[in-house]
Amino acid sequence: MEDFSNYTKEDYLKLYDKNLDDLIKISSEITRQNFGNKIESCSIISAKTGECSENCKYCSQSKYNHAEIECHPLLDVETVKKAALSAKENGASCFGIVTSGRVPTGKDFEVILDMVRAVSEIKGLQCCVSLGLLSDEQFQKLKEAGAKRYNHNINTSEKYYEFICQTHKFADRIKTVQKAQKFGITPCSGVILGMGETREDRIDMALTLAKLDVRSVPINILNPIKGTPLENYQDKINEEEILKTICIFRIILPKAMLRYAGGRTLRLSKENQEKGIIAGINCIMVGNYLTTTGSRANEDKEMLNEIHMQLV
Predict the structure, then answer these.
(1) How many helices (H) and strands (E) does the chain have?
(2) pLDDT value at residue 312
(3) pLDDT of 196 strictly over 60
(4) Whole-angstrom Cα distance, residue 278 to residue 37?
């Protein structure tokens, strides 16, 4: 197999010119060498929805946008625990607690710590959290409560970030990923494809994650939601381009868990979802996402059986 470790950004960009089937053949070999035919399953709950102070253009939960969603304050601990138990029954090995907003404070953060403790007590289920731009002290408390992973996506490239969000900077996201690492919590940091970024931006995203040594990478595909500034961005990326990007992410990040996250059931046909898994995806998110409908666990299990993948 070709050695890609000395490739430059320009070399990676040229991979987009390859035939898709040839590119999948390369990336799938890397995937099988590092992970065999095993694939993980994870699930999330929106523990607090809406009224977010940040102005991310893709997000229906931002108070700057006008999407029609059902907002709710922080859920109670028992509701989150029941959702985690249900996720485990559906085959999930990781359960994520997600809240809207820049950062939880006061009593809300204390309740979230209780949620983390409750989920962490469930045997065979890792607890992941996604809570925004936390302080060192908050990360320390999360670690002590039992959090294993912290999700904080870089979303796009540094160059393109200012177009997507202005209420915080790309550097804030990088620092948050590094803080998670500092406190021994595995960072889960990925991207959103189809927001108008260029191929070069996508290569920059993957190279940034490689430099950070992120080993858990959610790959979201933009679901253009009415009422957000990106509501008419349906045609910014096609299915072949998504699959080629998955292949190139696998080549740049050979040992990372690449995770199908939001948008894959809306933006990819079943056949192309399967091709993405063969190409490099080795974790899928089942159940609903934050404000949109996701996939049903039984449908995903059937799909995995068809392509001889083993859910672990």
Answers:
(1) 12, 10
(2) 77
(3) yes
(4) 9
Q: Judging by DSSP bridges, how do beta strands 94-99 and 216-221 pair with one another?
A: unpaired
Report the amino acid identity of residue 8. Answer: T
Provide the token pair at 18. 């390859």
The whole-angstrom separation of Cα 262 and Cα 286 is 10
Question: How far apart are alpha carbons 65 and 60 in whole angstroms?
Answer: 7
CA 206 to chain centre: 13
As a whole number of angstroms, the distance between CA 90 and CA 112 comes to 23
Are the C-beta atoms of 111 and 74 separated by less than 8 Å? yes
Token match 């089937």: residue?
21
Predicted confidence at residue 286, as pLDDT, reads 78
As given in the structure block, the two tokens for residue 256 are 């990372």
pLDDT recorded at residue 287: 64
Is a pLDDT exceeding 90 seen at residue 3?
no
For residue 123, what are its two tokens? 């045997």
Tell me the C-alpha distance between 180 and 191, whole Å.
18
Q: Please check whether residue 187 is in contact with residue 229, taking contact to mean a CB–CB distance below 8 angstroms.
A: no
Q: What is the mean pLDDT of residues 42-67?
A: 94
Q: Secondary structure of the chain: what % helix, strand, coil (to 5)?
A: 45, 20, 40
> Tokens standing for 83?
């959702």
Residue 296 has pLDDT above 70, yes or no: no
Give the number of other CB atoms < 10 A from CB of residue 182: 13
Q: How far apart (Å, rounded) are the C-alpha atoms in residues 150 and 130?
A: 6
Residue 99's beta-bridge partner residues? 48
**CA 272 to each of CA 16, 100, 144, 244, 279: distance values in angstroms, whole numbers, following the listed order:** 17, 31, 41, 11, 10
- Looking up tokens 């091709």 gives 275
Q: What is the rounded distance in angstroms from the CA atom of residue 179 to the CA atom of residue 312? A: 29
What's the gap between Cα 150 and its chain centre? 11
**Residue 61 and residue 262 in contact, taking contact as beta carbons nearer than 8 Å:** no
Bridge partners of 40, per DSSP, are 283
| Mean pLDDT, rounded, for 190-217 | 98
